[in-house]
Amino acid sequence: MCFLSPALRRIVTALSAGSALIAAAGEPVILRDFSDSARYTVRKPFAVPSPDGATLRIDTTASGDEWTPVFLTAPGMLKPSTTYVATFRCRVDGPDMNTKYLCFLSRPASSGNGALDTMFERGGGSASFRPVRIKFRTGNAADYAFQIHTYRQLKGEISDFRLVEQSREDSYYPAVRNAAPYTGPWGGIADRRKGVFDRPAVESGRKRRQGG
After folding, report:
1. Residue 132 in domain
2. For each successive 10 residues of the chain (212 residues), what is the average pLDDT?
3. CATH of the domain at 200
4. Which has the closest alpha carbon to 67: 206, 197, 200?
5. Does any domain span residue 83?
6. What pTM was computed for the model?
7. What is the spatial distance between Cα 49 and Cα 31, in angstroms, rounded to a whole number?
8. What are the E-state strand segments in the chain?
């Protein structure tokens, strides 16, 4: 067994902390929370950030559409063919993943359907906050955005949101404790829109194979 003197232990601790800071500093931060409204768009009144920008409150109970887009990153925030990691905590009132859920997408802002989606994940299966980590890669289009939609009407919250660019495949990311594994379907949400948020996204004629 190797015993370190108190002074040497302090040096090792400082070096370890420094390494973690260097790894974190190498991750270009796209969004740290919801405090900088220039970096994203929300569709009011269905999504409203808290005054301190720490939480995005979602309420689509007044929406008349099956699919409702509520959030997307601003144009130019994401680069083509680039890997990103989004981490956050989310919850939904009266959760029931068979009838309603949050949808997280990587899709061009100009796209009217899910044909160019490079990521689709469901969330919101808990009434209490659950940690989520999503890694995705944008496609070749210049206007890819990280988007949040709801399937059917629900109330929920997203907090501790962070979106970073992963510069290398082996970049370091802190683990998210107790993160729930994704078990839902893959694919895109088909919708028609005049503009980004001119009207809610709507399902294209038939229900998706499972959960949408």
Report:
1. yes
2. 47 39 62 97 98 98 97 97 98 98 98 94 98 98 98 98 80 49 47 42 41 42
3. 2.60.120.260
4. 200
5. yes
6. 0.70
7. 13
8. 29-31, 40-42, 47-49, 55-59, 67-73, 83-92, 101-108, 119-123, 130-137, 144-151, 155-166
